[in-house]
Amino acid sequence: MKRIIAVIITLFIFAAAVPTFAFASVTVSGTGLCEEIARGLDAHQDEIDVSQWHITPEELGDYYEVARYLAPAAFDLDFAYGYTTVSGSTARFVNKVKPRYTMNADEYARARQAYGEKLASIVALVPRGLDGYGIALFLHDYICANFSYSQPGEYLYDAYGLLTTGSGVCEAYTKLYIALLAEFGIKSYPVSSTAINHAWNELLIGNNWYHVDVTWGDPVPDSPGRAAHADFLCSSEKFQSDHGTGFVPVFAADDDSFDEAEWHGYDLPFAFADGKIYGVSDEGIIRRYDIASGAYEDIYTIEARWPALTEYSFWKGNFSGVAAYGGKLIYNDARSFYSYDLATGTAAKVYTPETDDTLNIYGCYNFGETLFYITGPKDNASDTGNFTLNVIELPDIIAPEKPKYTVRFVDWDGAVISEALYEEGGEITVPADPVRQPDETYTYTFSGWSPQVCATAVSDVTYTARYDQSYIEYTVSFSDWDGTVIKELTLHYGDEIVPPSGVTREADETYTYEFEGWDKEPPANCEGNASYAAVYKATYIEYTVKFLDWDGSVISEKNYHYGDEVEIPADPVREPEGERAYVFSGWDSEPERICRGSAVYTAEYIDASQGYKITFLDHDGTVLAERICAAGDIPREPAAPAREADKTYSYVFTGWDKQIVPADGDAVYTAVYEERYIEYTVKFVDHDGSVISEKTYHYGDEAEIPSAPVRDADKKFSYAFTGWDPVPARVCEGDAVYAAVYEERYIEYTVKFLDYDGSVISEKIYHYGDEVEIPSDPAREADDKYTYAFAGWGAEPARVCEGDAVYTAEYSGTEKPQPQKFIRGDVNGNGKIDAADYAMCKRACLRTYELSAEQLMRADINGNGRPDASEYAMIKRHYLGTYTIPQDAA
């Protein structure tokens, strides 16, 4: 059976004239609800759904109060709010929370923007490199030093009011601290005490929760620049001893490591440099603190005394403060300021303000580039009254030393290409694109730097060259004995090599061939381009040449290799038969003088009584052959003779001096040759082998020598023609090549380095390839508007001479601080009229703050010689946008 639930929507409104701090019933389990309501408040929602939490109206008040703290940007909340409930059979739960806001959407948007800008301006002052402890300490000190606790009748409860007016109650301090810590991801919750009607913070650093009471860190009445630390990073146990037991922390704060810390007694803002924390002990020792470990290190002892009632009396204590700027610490004695160089350990006086001789300086500190220092009467060191907060800009008294960063460019293998030290914001010089040599597998193309190069130096950084890689393709070829390609492979490094199989070579006239392998052993895997030639074992072919007699008997039989000279036997003799005598007439075919293969030659004879002597002579009468030829037979010619060429002619056999006819008697035939001129080529070539002239001559012709050639200069030399190598013959004596000879003469190049105004820094003469001497970086004197830093030579100077060159020095200019424009109402002189000006002017009217002469001029808008209520009202209306302070009289 279903249970029937009746739903009744009711609306309740709670209102309070003055809030109380009573949310002790909120525990860790309820923080999720607080944060959900806070998100709705921050988003300015009209209704916030909390139905999933099942809380009663009686429980809502505590959760809503905590949520108000966790949403400091919801600064227009009314103290009254509403809610709706859902009622069931046994209980009544809150369904939706209905906040009340005091501003319309446009008003809130403008105020929210101003709130965000002021919050951001504080966040921007937090030094870089601090851990959670350091950030919490800096923000604590900033709030204590720059805001004041409201006097009765002026209560302000929100962070916006504190930021814009400069004053508020503990709720405003707590909310502003929550807002600033949240910018750095540090979680913070409010803690309330019903016993003393007071609120402060719990914050989480590391794994521990701590109590911090920023309000109690700011003395009441306000003491200029003071920031007490006795209530910073304390345990619940310690707070219950001095804040009373009327509170229950949301989170357990059990760590008591800092309850008795040495720095709890320090009552000025700390200094922060390079992520470290610095303060001055009561004995005047500058100490470096490590809050996390509780350790501290003595850095420097300030030897100074503070005059008291007379010029011969002095206070026992030390009243130095410490600031940090530009890599140095700044501290004070009674009259002056000094810098302490953390790098060198040396101290030097940097500034003495123009103050009344009756005053001492009782401490200093800084936020950003502004140095605050406290002055008061010599006889008033222990009194909180009669002190004045003074301001000076640190760049006016000490040259800021910008952080320096190492910027390194390295190659892919970590090899340093360039490395330079730059001041923060200095323009980075990027080296020329590097070249990565190919390896066995890839070629490389430069593709940029990793990470992407920043134009200016902002931190130590290493840029590494990146390359796109492309496979190298190698050719591995296998060729036959005659160079013809058997197989050609395109491979990558490491690919398997498979040589061709079945390689053979056909026999020629001289040899048969058997494949034995390759001229070098191919590796199993590709290692680069390679060529392999087939190697064969050659075996001689044996040829038989026989000479037989007329009856078939062997006269001679020998084996020859192709091309061997054949041994022709002496003319054989045939025995007569009866009265018939025989005369050898030759072989049945003319024997080859050189072996061209196997051959058989048979001797032939004729009847001596029937033969005629036929003689064949060369051109010079040398007998080429003699024949006995039977009557009527045509004499057999010997092989065509050859006549060696002389220097003028070559000779071609054209026949015999007469026609060969059938034998009818003894006869002589003489060889006839055609003369053919030999043509000789005479070349004249330049240094690179190119042909200057080329002509054909006959032996003994007069040779034509060309005019002297001209060789163009290269980058290194000019050239003067000195003759030919060898010296040319005047008449042709054969083929000849004559090369031009030149004398090398160095070219001189001028390399200049000029300053920005064209004046010569250095000028030297070099030969091509000489190492260029680059002068040291020049300096340019500051002018009225800028200081200058050398930025390079425009183009990167070549390390070796490549020709005439001019390099001009370039400088980056830094604008000098210009005199600040005088703006009426800009009391602190920061160039704009804001809430800080209003607070200073108001406190000056109330006589709780003393303006300097210059601040007084800026605050005196109506010109009556002193600031009054109308002037701080004008300043407030100006920064709220409802009034504009005229500047025509400024």
Which structural traits does this protein have?
890 residues; mainly beta; four-stranded antiparallel sheet; 11 helices; disordered N terminus
Task: Write up this protein.
The protein is mainly beta and 890 residues long. 14% of the residues lie in helices and 35% in strands. The protein contains eleven helices and 48 strands. The strands form 14 sheets. The chain has a four-stranded antiparallel β-sheet, with helices on one face. Strands 7-8-9-10 form a four-stranded antiparallel β-sheet. The chain has a four-stranded antiparallel β-sheet with strand order 11-12-13-14, with no helix packed on it. Strand 19 (337-341) and strand 20 (346-351) form a beta hairpin. Helix 1 crosses helix 2 and helix 9 runs antiparallel to helix 11. The radius of gyration is 56 Å and the shape is elongated.
Give the distance, in angstroms, between the N- and C-terminal Cα atoms. 85 Å
Shape: elongated
Strand order of the main beta sheet, please? Answer: 1-3-4-2
Spans where pLDDT lies below 50 across 5 or more residues: 1-21
Content-based structural category? mainly beta
Total helical segments = 11
Mean pLDDT: 89
C-alpha-based Rg, rounded? 56 Å
Residues in β-strands, percent:
35-45%
Number of beta-strand segments: 48
Q: How would a crystallographer describe the biggest sheet?
A: 4 strands, antiparallel
Helix content range: 10-25%
